[in-house]
Amino acid sequence: MASLGRKTCRLFGCCHIKKRETKFSQDLIWSLSSRKRYFHETTGEVKDKSRTQRQDNVLLDLIKYNNDLVSSSDPFYMMNHLLKNKLFENEHIVAFNKPAGFPMTYNPPKNIRNCDLVDRVVNLDGLLPELAERLLCTKLYVALPIDRMCSGVLILTKSEDYKEFLQKRFNSLKTTNQYLYQHWDALCVGVPDKLPAEKVKLYYNKEKFRDIYLPQTVFCTPSMNTRKRGNVMYTSLSGEIITKNEERGARSSHVRVSVTSASNHVIPAFLSESFAPILGDQEYFWRAVSVMGVKMSILKQIPSSGIPRPQELSKGILHNLGIKQGHVKNLPVFLHRSAVNIVFPKNDQQENFQIKAPLPDTFLLAKYKLLKDNQSEAECMERFAGGHRLKYNPSEEGGTTDGELGFKEWEKNIITDTSTKDS
């Protein structure tokens, strides 16, 4: 078909509005503003700009699936999920891969007096009796808890004596040996500037800030007298960058950090002050900002308008993830406890071992979309595609490549897999 002029309309009599419509009165323009506006390309095709089609985003679907799982008031789904994701079990302990958002205890809302009228969200304390019955033991105890917004290894014991033994052992590894027994994986918005490869001892306190409900972790350099008095907390930390993306406007990285402290707030605070906050972190992301290309720390200079919530992401990060700024508030914290080392004393005849937890689906998919490296591609193919080939080729001259089409087909396979998961 011959190419039509830009001002020529194939559908004569349609209610389109030209861009240079200055001769009409303002009243006429207002009367026509409620109608649908069309624009014409050089080929003469008519497209409706007001009509928006829903685009399937697998990452948002996986996040919604996880949120529905952890916010359900029926314990059946969470019970089956934990049993399917059991990592390790012997005569003393049992370990699970906890999903992000699953609470340890039930915290009733403060603005409602009669909490019995509210459907209680399933929590670990409420599941322990039934979980112990399913595992054929009398009772279960939490030996190594994990924060609600984080995912990863959760260790329970089958007796109270062994719980006290493990907790004393973890404390001994921290105080005497400074052994890094916890290993965490984090997906960061940016690349950390200062990430020690060797073990470093950090001191921190809890301080209360304006517009923040709970006290936050603040690193400090205390004097020798303060250290001897025990008025400051400490931990040992080391880390490495697994993969990173140096693309301008979309810098991101996958970081692995090893610590001796059970506090989950040390890692987000440290990475945020290293100008690489964790994706989905709503508590510590404001610590460091970039002003006109210069990185600045605003720990003691909270803006007068308050701390922005939720986390503000750059356009490059949002484009790679395929989401909008309004979706950021629903993102989980991409901080995962991937491994815990169980180390016994030297005089004990038991062998040391390590409990590992695989990365969740949301972590793997977000990592692939942000970093687009070969390792992330292989992990995604192994987890989702089941052997389907997955390519990523940058588009040439603004066109769509076979790699992008293959990625869309691969995403459809993920949607079908998640819809039938745990059914």
TrEMBL record:
Question: In Gene Ontology terms, what is one molecular function of this protein?
Answer: pseudouridine synthase activity
Annotated keywords:
Isomerase
Keyword Protease among UniProt keywords: no
> Which InterPro entries does this chain map to?
PsdUridine_synth_cat_dom_sf (IPR020103), RluA_PseudoU_synthase (IPR050188)
Output the superkingdom of the source species: Eukaryota
Q: Which reaction does it catalyse?
A: a uridine in mRNA = a pseudouridine in mRNA
Q: Provide the GO biological process annotations.
A: pseudouridine synthesis
Family listed: Belongs to the pseudouridine synthase RluA family.
- State the name under which the record lists this protein: RNA pseudouridylate synthase domain-containing protein 4
Biological classification of the source:
Eukaryota, Metazoa, Spiralia, Lophotrochozoa, Mollusca
